[in-house]
Design a protein that fits this description.
By secondary structure, the protein is of the alpha+beta class. The protein has three helices and ten strands, in the order H-H-H-E-E-E-E-E-E-E-E-E-E. It has helices at residues 27-32, 35-52, 54-62, and strands at 72-76, 84-89, 95-100, 106-110, 121-123, 128-131, 136-139, 145-147, 156-162, 165-172.
Length: 176
């Protein structure tokens, strides 16, 4: 019989560090954090995330998220000559700007600049919308930025004219 004791799995009968490197590996943790466990966790998280979004999808399909279009009187046409503008609030607490352009068109946008939310004003001489904080310019006909730091267009306020009165009837966010 030999005097050597029986060695366990991954045990070496040497004190050489290079040979005993496997002693640092804990096989239990190796089984706990393997590729299969990772894939199971990833699939489980994906399914849970998908199930969690079902109520939002159902609401969108049924149309619960659409804004109810509220009709708000802005101004009478006789009080709004060509080349003038009027500030109003739509919906309720968000500032907006109705512009009667020099060409006779009526346009309305939220008047908060899409850069840093400074109030946008109408520049009659240039027929353009100006954010004076950082010299951002928006096209009066489209609300798209034409110069300066703003990168997104102004939200459009949908308007209707009935019996010489201008109404705000909805709002469109045209960017993602």
């Amino acid at each position: 019989m030999t005097d050597k004791k029986k060695l366990g799995r991954n045990e070496k009968d040497s004190n050489d560090d290079m040979i005993n490197l496997v002693d640092n590996v804990n096989r239990v943790e190796d089984l706990k954090y393997n590729r299969r466990a990772f894939l199971k966790t990833a699939v489980g998280a994906s399914v849970a995330l998908g199930v969690a979004t079902i109520p939002f999808s159902v609401r969108a399909v049924l149309g619960f998220d659409e804004d109810e279009k509220e009709r708000v009187e802005i101004a009478k046409m006789e009080d709004l000559p060509k080349g003038s503008s009027k500030t109003f609030y739509y919906p309720e607490d968000e500032a907006a700007l109705l512009v009667h352009t020099a060409n006779g068109d009526l346009v309305a946008y939220n008047s908060s600049c899409t850069h840093l939310m400074c109030p946008v004003t109408y520049e009659k001489e240039k027929d353009i919308l100006l954010c004076p904080c950082h010299k951002g310019y928006f096209d009066i006909n489209t609300g798209h930025p034409v110069a300066g730091p703003p990168q997104r267009e102004l939200p459009l306020i949908e308007i209707e004219v009935e019996n010489g009165v201008v109404y705000a009837v909805g709002r469109k966010f045209r960017h993602g």
